[in-house]
Each structure stands twice: as C-alpha cells, then as structure tokens.
Amino acid sequence: MAKQEDQFKKVLSHAKEYGYVFQSSEIYDGLSAVYDYAQNGVELKKNIRDYWWKAMVQMHENIVGIDAAILMHPTTWKASGHVDAFNDPLIDNKDSKKRYRADVLVEDFREKISEKIQKDIDKAKKRFGDAFNEDEFRNTNPNVLRRQKQMDEITEKLTKVQEENDLEGFRQLIIDLGINCPVSGSSNWTEVKQFNLMFGTQIGASAENATQVYLRPETAQGIFVNFLNVQKTGRMKIPFGIAQTGKAFRNEIVARQFIFRMREFEQMEMQFFVKPGTQQEWYNEWKETRLKWHLSLGMGAENYRFHDHDKLAHYADAAADIEFKFPFGFKELEGIHSRTDFDLKAHEEYSGKKLQYFDHEENKSYVPYVVETSIGLDRMFLAVFSNSLQEEELENGTTRTVLKLPAVLAPFKAAIFPLVKKDGLPEVARKIMDDLKWDFNVFYDEKDAVGKRYRRQDAAGTPFCITVDHDTLQDDSVTIRHRDTMDQKRVKITDLKDIIKAEVDVKTWLQKM
C-alpha cells in the first residue's frame, strides 16, 4: 500500500513539473477536485480524444457524432430519473469530520480481500513456476476459498441494501465489517443519507423569472433527445450509433485521487441503437471491441479486467465495467451498459413526442434498445499517464525518469536539437522542424548539453530526439534517438518523416484491434 501511495505521489508531482496538470486557480489556493490541463496535458488529452473518435466514429460507417449543449431543458433530467434517483449514499465520521461514500467504503474493503487472494496466487506462482495451475489453486486453496466466500457474502449484503435503499442497513454493514475511517481510525459513524449529485443553476434575466436548470451530469441524454433528428437527417438504419465527447458535472461527495474523480470532467460516450431482442448480442460485441481498443495502446493486458455489476441501474438489463490497475488499485475506467429502451420511452412519455424507428424490412415502428459505451476521458488520461511513468536503472549505475507514453498519444512526437548554438546548426535544425511540423507536433530545444536535453524529453514523454551535428552539414544526416530503448542511429533528413510516422501513425496502432 505504501509503495502504491509513493507511486501516486510521483504521478502528481510529475504531472505538474512537466506541464501536464495544474491545480485550478492555484494562486488562490485552488478549488477542491478541479484541475487545469497544462501545455502538455492538453495535447495528451486531445490525442486520447482523437484516438477514441477515430476508432469509434471514423472507422464505423454506422456511427456518427454530435455535440449537444451542456444546458438542457430541466424536464430532460426528470425524464431520465436524475432528479429523483441520481443519488449517492453519504456517511460521515464524527471524529475526523471526513465524508465518504458508503458504497465505496464497502467496495474498498472487499477489494483489500481480493488483493490478499492475489498475493497468495502470486506467491504460489513463484513457488511452483510453470507447473502452477491458477484455476485449480483458486478452487482448492483453503485461504483463497475462505476469502472468496467472505467477498461473496459482502457482495450479497451490499447488493441487498442498495436494491432496498436500506440506509440503516448500509450503516450496519459498515459497522459489522469493522470498517474504520482511514483518517481517524475510528468507527464512530453518522447515519447514512442520500445525496443528489446534480449542480443546479438558473437561466433568466431576473431572479423572479428565472428557470431552474442543471449542468448536465452525463452526456448521454443529449444523444437520446436528438435520436430522431440524427436518424432522419442522417438516414441512419438500425443498428447505428451516436457518439459524443464533452463536459459533465457532478457534485461528488468524495472527489479525491487527483483527476480520477472530479466535479467537472469529460466523457466519451456512444449510444448504439439496436433492434429489441438483439441487445445481448451487441452488448457482448461492444464489451469485446472496447477492450481491444484499450489493449491496442500496449499498456499490458494484466492491467485490465471486467467487473460485471451486481446491482444494475434502473434502466439496465446488463452492465459491466472495464477496470484498470491505477496506482491506487483496480478502478472503473469504462462502462458498457445495455440500457434497454428506458431512455427513449421516458422521453416519449415526458415530451409527448414519438421517438421511434420505422423498420422498412418489418414494416413496423418500435422504440430501439440501446447499448452504451462510456469512458471518462480524464480517467483515461490518468491511466495512460500513471502507467507510462517509470524509473529505470541504467547500465552505468544511474537512473532515469521516463514517461513511456504510447507514441500515438504523446504530446510531441519529436524534439529537434542542434548540437551547439553556432556554426549554422540551429538554422538546419529549424529547417527540419519547419518541415516536420506540417505532419507532427514537434519541439525545438537548444539549451544545455545534449544529454540533459535527452533526459528532459524522456521525462516529458517525447518518443524521438533528433540531433543536428557538424556532420549533418556534410552528409544531410542526423542522429535519431528512441525514447524507450535509447538506441541511436544515423539517418537521412529526408527519411525522418517516414521513420516518425511508422511509430506514431493512428492507423498502425488501431490496426492492432
């Protein structure tokens, strides 16, 4: 646990030092759980968004995008259930005065048991080597079986209190499990209360005539209310999808862990409209497709896992999370939900307008079912950044800090250095930069020794460094250095574009799917 905390502290420090993420309004001591993306961070965030958009929209002829407004008619949120049911269970510790989500306390407790199981498995793997059978070990080892039974019992009780909205049962479960406040160490808990997460505001020229509206807590509803507009103007045929990226706002009870849980965040969502009765097939298809997208970035299959929901949302008939191993453990990164026809039917009821699809093949109209994929862009940013930050011991006994971002996502694809700031080398380096910047985001640096410049770009995550030296003036060749391997080789200036493109081209990466 201490090792995880140390790694997370390094992530936070590195994100600021290298211009990725700043605390919002820091000169005024900041605003809790609100962050600004800095000069490198905004590029990484944009590249993640583009990588998602190309995979989701550009590569699918039956998926289109929209950009719906943040402010929507307030009845939207009544129809969607957010006004009445968008709540989280809240509990306070009387000694520390700290506030927690009751369900997260229980889930974190359960996850610690899971981590103990994994430790037993890792020890057995080390002991038995190639002869180790993990399935057999899980099904026969007494410690694993005991802990798994404990986890199953917790899951059953948690699901029961959630489904019954049993707030006193929630508190009793926390007490029975012996869950203490991480800050005070005590179990002096308050009652559990429900807390609505929506931010309210007003539209109108005067207070007397103002209309109560909300900052959207999700981007999905903007898609649903535009379903018919998009379907008709785009002449879309079932099955088809509508994708959107954009800001959402939630007044989180506990907004911690850096950009993992913020009050202002960005989502990348796609709602896929299907014929009723085919939703399970498409749900399984999108689970597989979305995991392949994640794996295409090469961040390690062992860092992902599916978590099927024990408690389904009121609108769903199936739901799963793709969880990622963050520095603080496995947490939700993306959700795939089979939302049935709840949303369109609810908006039909509240608006009085038909939101149906006329199927020419069957010669009838019906309300489509929906399969949703929803990923937090900020969480994806944190997953990429934290996974990429590494410290390596080199052969000469020194260490280097390197940000091994997937090259396709790196803010800058190459840095161009003149060996010295004279003898015409800066002019050649500038010319190379002016040529490459039409195709790639590139960086120029002439300050300090080349070795120091290499280290700076390693830490900033730049895949390539290109050095112009005196030989360049004679043979039109430069030294190109690869961030991950530190290998260097001489190449012709005319070959640089092709060399960089081979490593950073979106097509190369997405074809791994």
Report on this structure.
- With 513 residues, this protein is of the alpha+beta class.
- The protein has 3 domains: 41-77 and 198-391, Bira Bifunctional Protein, Domain 2 (BirA Bifunctional Protein, domain 2), CATH 3.30.930; 87-196, Herpes Virus-1, CATH 3.30.40; 412-510, Anticodon-binding domain (Rossmann fold, 3-Layer(aba) Sandwich), CATH 3.40.50.
- It is built from 18 helices and 23 strands.
- The strands form 7 sheets. It has a 7-stranded mixed β-sheet with strand order 3-9-10-16-13-12-11.
Notable features of this structure?
Herpes Virus-1; alpha+beta; Rossmann fold; 513 residues; BirA Bifunctional Protein, domain 2; aa-tRNA-synth_II/BPL/LPL; 18 helices; protein biosynthesis; cytoplasm; nucleotide-binding; Glycine--tRNA ligase
Topology overview:
Elements: H1 2-17, E1 21-23, E2 35-37, H2 39-58, E3 63-65, H3 75-79, H4 82-85, E4 87-92, E5 99-101, H5 102-128, H6 134-140, H7 142-163, H8 167-176, E6 193-196, E7 199-203, E8 211-215, H9 220-224, H10 227-233, E9 240-249, E10 264-274, H11 279-295, E11 304-308, E12 318-326, E13 329-340, H12 342-351, E14 357-359, E15 364-366, E16 369-376, H13 377-388, E17 389-393, E18 399-403, E19 414-418, H14 425-436, E20 442-444, H15 450-460, E21 464-468, H16 472-475, E22 477-482, E23 488-492, H17 496-504, H18 506-510
Parallel strand pairs: 3-9, 19-20, 19-21
Antiparallel strand pairs: 1-2, 4-5, 4-6, 7-8, 9-10, 10-16, 11-12, 12-13, 13-16, 14-15, 17-18, 21-22, 22-23
Helix pairs in contact: 2-13, 5-7, 5-8, 7-8
